[in-house]
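Final report, closing paragraph on structural work. Over the funding period we assembled a curated collection of sequence-structure pairs, and we close with a single example.
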Amino acid sequence: AFGYTRRTGALTYGIGMFAQGGMGTDYEATSFLAAGSGAPVRSELGVGNVIFPVAYQVNSNLTVGATLKFMWSSLDMLMAASPAQLGAMVTGGSGALGGAIAGGALSTATWARINFSDDNDFTGAAKSTGFGASLGATYKVNQNLTVGGSYTFKSALDDMKSASSAASLSANPGAAATATFTDNGQITVIDFQMPSVLAIGASWQASPSFLLAADLKYIGWADAMGSFKMRYDSSVMGGSVSFAMPQNWKEQTVLNLGMAWKANDALTLRAGLNIAENPIPDAFVNPLFPATVKDHVTLGLGYQVSKPGDFNMSVTMAPSVSVNSGSGVAISHAQTNWQFMYSHRF
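Its predicted structure, as stored:
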């Protein structure tokens, strides 16, 4: 990640790049999630931004701002399922491939797979780009108290697509040789978006060395994560099959609390607390996308190494959250994240 800002009079503008979010899982070929296919199961989702922010100081108390985002997303997925499970995801089909699925091409198989992956830590086989935007303002109530608010619009990402033959749909032969099924084609992840976020907050300079802050956010997951939809277009047989995995994420309210203490002229210590509910109903949690963590704690420090430069670091710890999915799979998820940053003022 990097960022650059410049102030000219009342106007501040800049450019930055950072990861907005993502998730990923890896399961061995011997895992029950491989459904006996003898191949690993994995997912890798990433969303990033290049941002173009601008802020204008209307007067000594009020500042308004806006950000335009160029966004990208990418996804790898190696998914195995029983033919019955895969069949339950099918929402439609056309051409030779759709007819084969509808005609029971997988009926005697014991496993089926949808695969698309480029095995790169920084990209996914299915990719898209798009745009996003945010608006916000801060108001200095008095010398010590500042309040603010912002609204981030739901993203406008194109559908994620792989190359024309980079995905595969396959199944084992099962009991009958006629059940052998392998095909290559293109995967399209339909209307995957990041949610809208409404936020309000305040900071209070309790003393010259002690700062307190609080934010309340309302995240519109229900509008963005109702269903995970894909279409597979065959480049061998011809035709297509559409799939949908219900997600039914709920809206999420998140409370953030933070504090910073300036220990001396060079050192600042920080701490934060995130309090939230898991937006994913247990019945719809998928082991490939187990985004179930809720609360987390952050610790950080900043150290001014020179007059223009300072170094900051933080660690975020999310305690383990365990749920039982609708298919009876027990899922446990915890995270620890580190961040390091250097800032320089010209």
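DSSP finds three helices and 21 strands in the chain. The two ends are 19 Å apart (CA to CA). We thank the funder for supporting this effort.
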